[in-house]
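**User:** Here is a favour to ask of a fellow structure person. Please take any protein you like and set down a full record of it. No explanation is needed for now; the record alone will do.

**Assistant:**
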Amino acid sequence: MRALLLGASLLWGTAALPQPPYWRAMGRGTVGPTEIQTLYGDSVSGRLLAGGTFLRIMNDQDTVLAYGQAAWNGLRWDSLAHRIQLSGSGNMTQQTFWFLRFQGRLYACGGFSFLAEDSIWNNALARLNEQTHHWEALECINPNQSNLLTLVPKAPDSTLYATGYTRHSVRLSGELRVPL
C-alpha cells in the first residue's frame, strides 16, 4: 500500500509540473531542392527573417512567393517586403546570405541583383525602406557582382562597411564605405 501511495504521489507531482518547451515545424518548408541558409531575429518588426535560395516557402495551407526572403510572425510565413529580385528559375532564386539592422535600418546582403529606382542595376547589398516596403540601393551603387558581400558595422563609428574580395583574385580584398 505504501508503494502504491508513493507511486501515485510521484505521478501526480510530475503531472502538475509545467511541460518543457518543444520544437515544432514552422510551416512546411521550402519548395524543391532549396534551403533556408540564414535566420535573423528582427526585434524591431517582431518577426524571424529567413534568407536563402528558395523561390517559394510553404505554410500549412498556402505557398508564398518569397524570392529568397521570408518573414515568420509566429504563425505563418509571409514575404518580407516587395521582392528584391525580378525572377527565379525553377524553384531556386539568387540567395540572400543574411540580414543586419544598423542604426534602426534593415539591410540585406546576398548574391542577388536588382534594378534600383533610377534604372541602375545594383548587386549584393540593399536597404529596406520600411515605409514603402521596397528594397533600395545604397548611396554607393555596387554595379558589378564584385563579391563585396559582407556588411560590417564598425563601432563606435557611424559608418557601415562592406567587405569582400574581387572576383578576379581571391587574394585581393576590398572595402566599400557606405555614407549614412
